[in-house]
Design goal:
The protein has 413 residues and is an all-alpha fold. It has 14 helices and no strands.
C-alpha cells in the first residue's frame, strides 16, 4: 500500500482527540456527583481505557470489522469473525477498509477510542450505587453483546449497512445504545437511598465539557477518514449544533427557573454534540443549527420527563445521549442531502422515504436490543455478584467504601 501521509496524520490526531474525550467524560461526571463519590465515577471511565483496550486487541476489533454479510464471512450480519483476533494477519502494509491510504493499525486505534468511551457513558446513570466488580462484568458483557454487534451491523458491513442505514459517527453505535442501556440500568438497580445534594463542582463539569467538545471534532470530522470538504462540513456542523443546543437549553432553563444556569448551558452543548453525531457529515450547516435547537429543547424536556416519572438517572444519560442519539438518527433520515455529501443519500425532504424508514427501523431495533440485553445481563451479573452496593457503603460514599480513597482530604493543608 502507499500511505497517504496527510490522511494518516490527520487520523492519528483524531484518534488522540477521541481518546481525550474519556478523561473529559470522567471530569464531567466527577463534577456532577457529590464529594464522596468523585473517584468511584471517574475510575469507571478510566478503567475502560485499560480494559476495553485489552478486549479490543484480543477479539473486539475482529468481531466488529472482520468478515461481511455480502461475502458470507460473518455471523449472519450481526458479528464478524475472529480472523483479526490479536491483530493476527495485520501487517504494516495492510490498508484500512475505508481509506486504502491509511494503515489498518491507525483504523484499529481510532475505532478503539470509540469503544472505550461508549460504555463509560452509561456509568452516569447508576452513579453512587453499583459495585466495582459488577461494573467490570457489565463493561465486558455490554461490549460483547451490545456494542460490538452494532458496530459490525452498521460500520462493519453487517445487516443494517445492507439495509442502507447511515450513522456518520455514532448516533446508534454510541449514543442511542448507551443511553437506552442507561435507562435499563436505572430501572434495574433502583433509586439511590442516600440523596445526592447535587453537583459538587460545576467548574469540573465545565472542564469536562470543554474536553468533550474539543475531542468531538476528532469524533465527527475524523469519521470521514480522510481530509476533504465533507471533513470540513462535519467539523463545522459539530460546533454549530453544540452551540445552538447549549443556547437553546440555557434559554429553556432561564424561562422555567428565571435564572440562566451554567450547568444548563453545559448540558445542552453535550446534547447538541450527541444529536448531530449521526448526521454531521450528511447535512448542511443550516440544518446543523436547526438540529442543535431541536436537541436543546427535546433533551431538556426528556430530562424533565425523567424527573416527573421518578427515574433516578443520576446524570441524565438517557435524556441527553439516549434521546439525542435517537432523534439524531431520525433527523439524519429527514435532512440528509447529497449536496453536502455526494457519497451519502438524500433524506425524506428530498423524497427518499425508504431511507427515512430504514433509519427509524434501525434506531427502534437498537433501542429494544440495548434495553433487553442490558436488563438480562444485569440480572445474570446479580446472580454472580451483587450489582448494588450495601446501604452502609452508599452512606459512607463509594470512594471510601469501595476504593479506600478520598478525592478531598478536609484535614490536608
Amino acid at each position: 500500500m502507499k500511505i497517504d501521509t496527510g490522511d494518516t496524520g490527520f487520523m492519528l490526531l483524531c484518534s488522540s482527540l477521541v481518546m481525550l474525550m474519556t478523561p473529559g467524560l470522567a471530569f464531567f461526571y466527577g463534577g456532577l456527583v457529590g464529594r464522596k463519590n468523585v473517584l468511584a465515577i471517574m475510575i469507571q471511565s478510566f478503567v475502560s481505557m485499560g480494559w476495553t483496550t485489552v478486549l479490543w486487541w484480543a477479539f473486539g476489533f475482529s468481531l466488529c470489522f472482520s468478515g461481511s454479510l455480502d461475502k458470507g464471512t460473518d455471523f449472519h450480519g450481526v458479528f464478524g469473525n475472529f480472523d483479526w483476533a490479536f491483530l493476527r494477519g495485520i501487517a504494516l502494509d495492510t490498508p484500512s477498509p475505508i481509506n486504502a491510504g491509511i494503515p489498518m493499525f491507525v483504523f484499529f486505534g481510532y475505532q478503539m477510542m470509540f469503544a472505550i468511551i461508549t460504555p463509560a457513558l452509561i456509568t452516569g446513570a447508576f452513579a453512587n450505587r453499583v459495585t466495582f466488580k459488577a461494573y467490570m462484568l457489565f463493561l465486558t458483557g455490554w461490549l460483547v453483546l451490545v456494542y460490538f454487534p452494532f458496530v459490525h451491523m452498521i460500520w462493519g458491513g453487517g445487516i443494517l449497512a445492507k439495509w442502507g442505514v447511515l450513522d456518520f459517527a455514532g448516533g446508534i453505535v454510541v449514543h442511542n445504545i448507551a443511553g437506552i442501556a442507561a435507562l435499563a440500568s436505572v430501572l434495574y438497580v433502583g433509586k439511590r437511598t442516600v440523596a445526592d445534594r447535587g453537583p459538587h463542582s460545576i467548574p469540573l463539569v465545565a472542564l469536562g465539557t470543554g474536553l468533550l467538545w474539543f475531542g468531538w471534532y476528532g469524533f465527527n470530522a475524523g469519521s470521514e477518514f480522510r481530509v476533504d470538504s465533507v471533513t470540513a462540513v462535519a467539523f463545522i456542523n459539530t460546533d454549530l449544533a453544540a452551540s445552538f443546543a447549549g443556547v437553546a437549553w440555557l434559554a429553556m432553563d432561564w424561562m422555567t427557573t428565571r435564572r440562566p444556569k451554567f450547568l444548563g448551558l453545559l448540558t445542552g452543548a453535550v446534547a447538541g454534540l450527541a444529536t448531530i453525531t449521526p448526521a454531521a457529515g450528511y447535512v448542511s450547516p443550516a440544518t446543523a443549527c436547526l438540529i442543535g435547537v431541536i436537541a436543546g429543547v427535546v433533551c431538556f424536556y426528556a430530562v424533565a420527563l425523567k424527573n416527573k416519572l421518578g427515574w433516578d438517572d443520576a446524570l441524565d444519560v438517557w435524556g441527553v445521549h439516549g434521546v439525542g442519539g435517537f432523534i439524531g438518527i431520525i433527523l439524519c433520515g429527514v435532512f440528509a442531502t447529497t449536496a453536502f455529501n455526494p457519497a451519502g443519500v438524500d433524506g425524506l425532504l428530498r423524497g427518499n422515504t425508504h431511507f427515512f424508514l430504514m433509519q427509524c427501523a434501525a434506531v427502534a431495533i437498537s433501542s429494544v436490543w440495548a434495553f433487553v440485553v442490558t436488563l438480562g445481563m444485569l440480572w445474570l451479573i446479580d446472580k454472580l455478584t451483587p450489582v448494588r452496593v450495601a446501604d452502609a457503603t452508599e452512606k459512607v460514599g463509594l470512594d471510601e467504601g469501595l476504593h479506600g480513597e478520598r478525592a478531598y482530604l478536609e484535614d490536608a493543608i
